[in-house]
# Entry
Amino acid sequence: MAKIKATCGACFSAVALNADGRIARHGWREVGGRKAGQHGHAWHVGNCFGSGRLPYETTAQTTVDYLDHVVLPASASARREVDRLSARPTLYVEAHMNLWYGRNDPKAIATLVIAPGSEPRRYVRELVCGEVEGLPTWKADFPAYDSLLQSRVRDANGRLSTITEAVAFCAEKIAAWTSAKAA
Ligand SMILES: [Zn+2]
# Structure
C-alpha cells in the first residue's frame, strides 16, 4: 500500500503520514524537491521541526509554532550578529592540525585571535604534550583582520537575508491557510 503523503508545516515538503495522521520523522536533507537554502533551510539541519506534528492540510498551527519558536529567534540572532560585526570586534578562528598522518588521526585545535587591524601572519610553535612523542610543528595561518571581517559580514548578511525570506515565507503560508478557511 502506498503511503499517504501530506505537506509538512515547517519545510513544506511532501512527507509520509503516520497512522495517527501526523507527519513522519524526516530531516531537511533527506527530503527531496527542495534545495537546501531555499526558504531558509540551510541554517537548519537534522530532524525537521514538522516531524510528529499535524500537516499543513489539517492546520496552520505547525507553521505558526515553527515561525515563533525557530524562525523568529533565528532571525533575531542573525540580526544581533550583523550588529555585533558592525562594531569591528576581535574575531576568532579555529585552526586544526592533524597530529599524525591520516584523516582520522587526532587533531590539535587552537583558537587564533584576530585583533582589529592585524595583518596576515604565520604562527609556528612546537606542540608540547607529555604523553606523545615526535609531534610535528604547529603551523597556522592568521588571516588579515579586514578580509576575515569582510567574509564574516558577508556570511552574516547572507544568513540574515535567508532567514528574513523564511519569515516572509511562513507568514505567507499562515495567511494563505487562514484566507482559504474564510473563503
Ligand atoms: Zn518538514
